[in-house]
Amino acid sequence: MKLATLNDGSRDGRLVVVSRDGKRATEAGPFAPTLQAALDNWVESEPKLRARFDALDSGRVAGTPVDVTRL
User: Fold this and answer.
1) Exposure of 2 by Cβ count < 10 A (0-12 exposed, 13-18 middle, 19+ buried)?
2) Residue 7 half-sphere exposure, CB side, CA atoms within 13 Å?
3) Tens digit of each residue's pLDDT (9 = 90 or more) over 5-43
4) Quick one: which H or E segment has residue 50?
5) Where do the DSSP E strands lie in 1-71?
6) Within a 10 A sphere around the Cβ of 46, how many other Cβ atoms?
7) pTM score > 0.70 for this model?
8) Contact (Cβ atoms closer than 8 angstroms) between residue 35 and residue 12
């Protein structure tokens, strides 16, 4: 599972899930808006993030192209 933070001007940035090939990303979801939120509640957020990663990586979620200048 790959995670990244987008610089959105906030202190912590916005958490996204990145495809295995690093070419697409999708929002982590309301359960983990930031990496800190995911870590603070890892037991609950990890399975949801992993499911989101699997959906993105398999193509069930389209995702958007990754702009590495925003990571």
Assistant:
1) middle
2) 5
3) 988 888 888 999 999 998 999 999 888 999 999 999 999
4) helix 42-58
5) 2-6, 14-18, 24-27, 64-65
6) 14
7) yes
8) yes
Q: Which residues contact 61 (CB under 8 A, 6 or more apart)?
A: 26, 52, 55
Structure tokens at 12: 């912590």
Place of tokens 């800190």: 36
Q: Which residue has 């192209």 as its token pair?
A: 65
| β-strand partners of 26 | 17
Residues 18/40/30/43 CA torsion (nearest 10 deg): 80
Phi-psi region of 49 (alpha: psi -120 to 50; beta: other; left: phi over 0): alpha
Distance CA 69, CA 71 (A): 6
Nearest-angstrom CA–CA distance, 34 and 64: 18
